[in-house]
Amino acid sequence: MSSASALPELRAFSVPEVSERLQISQRAVWRLLADGQLKTLFVRKPGVPVRIPAESLRALLANGHRDGIGGDA
Questions:
Q1: pLDDT of 14-54, one tens digit each?
Q2: Is the pTM value of this prediction over 0.90?
Q3: Where does residue 17 rank: exposed (0-12), middle (13-18), buried (19+ CB within 10 A)?
Q4: What is the DSSP string of the chain?
Q5: CA–CA distance, 20 with 11 (Å, rounded to integer)
Q6: How confident is the model at residue 10, as a pLDDT?
Q7: Residues 6 or more apart from 8 whose CB is under 8 A from it?
Q8: Residue among 20, 54, 21, 17 nearest 38 (CA)
Q9: 20 alpha carbon, distance to own chain's centre
Q10: Closest to 53 (Cα-Cα) out of 1, 25, 6, 3
Q11: Can you tell me the distance from the alpha carbon of 9 to that of 55, in angstroms, rounded to the nearest whole number?
């Protein structure tokens, strides 16, 4: 079933969930968002929940993200 295999691609995470998965602070997640290293599903504006797609997390990790500080270290 190809539709079932596509379901993991639809997963999106909140800032606390990303923080827990990456073992970094929520503040560090917000910095990654501000720096454009993480993408959101929806335009960031008041009242719209921030959801980070699984693909954005995979891309961040594939590019060598470490300790919430991007490529600086």
A1: 999 999 999 999 999 999 999 999 999 988 888 889 999 99
A2: no
A3: middle
A4: -HHHHHGGGG-EE-HHHHHHHHTS-HHHHHHHHHTTSS--SS---TTSPP-EEHHHHHHHHHTT--TTSTT--
A5: 16
A6: 76
A7: 54
A8: 54
A9: 11
A10: 6
A11: 7
Tokens read off for 24? 């970094």
Contact by Cβ (8 Å): 38, 52: yes
Rounded distance between C-alpha atoms, residue 4 and residue 42, angstroms: 24
- Cα–Cα dist 69/44, whole Å: 21
Tokens 């968002």 -> residue: 33
Give the closest residue to 18 by CA, choosing from 41, 51, 66, 67: 51
